[in-house]
Amino acid sequence: MNPSLNLYLTPAELARLYKVSRRTVKRWNAHGDIRFLKVGQSVRYALDAVLEFELRHTIASRWGTDSQQVQQQRARLEWLALELTKQRQAAA
Asked: According to the model, what pLDDT value does residue 72 have?
């Protein structure tokens, strides 16, 4: 299994990624727009759920063929995993 799939974003990290408020992220949760994991009071977003959300909200004309879309999704996943790891290391 790809180790990047084991990374989860907090609501604050997701809001920062898309440059929206945390309230907007809560609204996405309430409307079922994005899959999330809730343990106790903590909410987390798996990277694959974030990319799934992103693909659903991307205008189709911006993408090429299906294989290009998959390649771009993989590259985006790897980039997100790397950025998240860097941010967490800098904060530690």
From this structure: 75
Q: Percent of the chain, pLDDT > 70?
A: 82
Instruction: Say how many C-beta atoms besides its own lie within 10 A of residue 50's C-beta.
Output: 23
Element (H, E) at 89: helix 66-91
Rounded Cα–Cα distance for residues 6 and 19 (Å):
23
Query: Domains in the chain, please, with CATH?
Result: 3-91 (1.10.1660)
Element of type H or E holding 45: strand 42-46
38-47 average pLDDT score: 93
CA distances from 42 to 37, 38, 70, 73, 77 (A): 8, 6, 30, 27, 23
Q: Are 54 and 63 in contact (CB under 8 A)?
A: no
35: closest CA among 52, 18, 10? 52
Residue type, 80: L
